[in-house]
Amino acid sequence: MSASVVAERAVVVGAGLAGLRGAEALRRAGFTGSLTLVGAEAHRPYDRPPLSKHVLTGAVAADATTLPSFLPLEAEWRLGTAVTGLDRRNGRVRLADGSSLAFDRLLIATGTRARAWPNPHEGRLAGVHSIRSREDATALRTALAAGPRRVLVIGGGFIGCEMASACRTLGIPVTLVEPSTAPLARVLGTHMGDVIGALHTARGVEMRCGTEVEWLEDDGRGRVVRAHLSGGDRIEADLVVVALGAVRNTEWLAGSGLSADAGGLDCDADGYALDTEGRVDARVAAAGDVARFPHPLYDGRRVALEHWSHAVAQAEHAGRLLADRKACSHYAAVPTFWSTQHGINIKSVGLTEGADGLVIAQGSPKEGRFLAVYGREGRCIAALSVDCARWLPAYAAQVAARAPFPPIHGAIDQPEHRPVLPPGFS
């Protein structure tokens, strides 16, 4: 443990997973000054991944998702109060209730919110939902338990796919509409997206890819009844889930002088926030979904990641950074992600963006159990396992080492032929 830091004030903006783990890391690294956590929601930090899985099926109650705290924080909690601004010159965070908090060290972990349906009137219709908060999950669970005739999921990303899976677990008819030619095509490419799409089709999900929902129709009494697609088709649905991705919560930073936009808050390789001139503010760090930083595994390309394990790792790094500014090296954790769909575990390491090759390294998609590796310019950049996670650590090591692509020859359970396939990124 580093030497104690006394008589200073630390503020953590964002009372979610990253905020909690960052605050704990501050204390663990020796910070003994005052500590305040600010959160727009009224709840103590809770786990979001179960909201789109176990909570929807009724296996877990929404209020049973509170995250454990691993040490006494001795902190003040300001919950149910959003932040509205940052005055860096005077070292103060402004709150929606008109008060402000002074800080010497500031951790920004404001995360994201669900992207709203673009037509506000249609988005307010009864039966139209999104999922991000406990309240969202509770409302959606209640609507699913009422037995809708058909659910329409708009968006084929991870949340949309998990939503479709939950519907089929409950025996509810569901249609998923995705503008790309396959679900998850943006993050996995169309080749693997087609595999995931086939998995959903086999479980009874009606997949409508390569088309878009243009507008939602109400019944004249304020409830959604159908969706109109770009090709002229209509889908009858009395429950619609909008799963169009996330929006980073950076609006409150306007006028602060920090380099932030809808894509995130810019940080340096250590995790310190950058101002609009590219200069470091060593009082301010960021972590989790909102932080956009140069990743050394990807040639310093700036990325902002929305993954649970990343939020934990980066928050712990940022907490140590703010507690002892000389003790930390660059943040370089390999990104990881997982999802459960139709009882199948899907896990990944690394980032697929820019991949120019793909190989099935273990197992077989036809058997429903395989591991695929992505390459770029002759190097391994990512790996994806589908019910084949026991092999993933070996390939994660290959990604971290920037090993030549394709990797690992002569292992058991490998296909006889491993042709390099186009991953299908446009």
TrEMBL record:
Membrane-traversing stretches: none
GO cellular component, one term: cytoplasm
Keyword Transmembrane: no
Keywords: FAD, Flavoprotein, Oxidoreductase
UniProt cofactor(s): FAD
Domain FAD/NAD(P)-binding as annotated: residue spans: 10-315
Domain Reductase C-terminal residues, every copy: 337-404
Keyword Plastid: no
Protein name: FAD-dependent oxidoreductase
Species in which this protein is naturally found: Methylobacterium planeticum
